[in-house]
Amino acid sequence: xxxxxxxxxxxxxxxxxxxxxxxxxxxxxxxxxxxxxxxxxxxxxxxxxxxxxxxxxxxxxxxxxxxxxxxx
Length: 72
Description:
- This protein is mainly beta.
- About 5% of the residues lie in helices and about 40% in strands.
């Protein structure tokens, strides 16, 4: 088993087609490695200008920015 620290690694949280999520880490050649997420309370900082929080009728959602979705 190879173990490497994950602290400070930049990646992308992706939704799997069958449900659930995984963490994708890209390399310098545009290749990537996908990691199953087993951590139960992982701290995440959003660093994406094309993201926004929405609230409507008590439903809270994180999605793309209004301009990307065509919302005025």
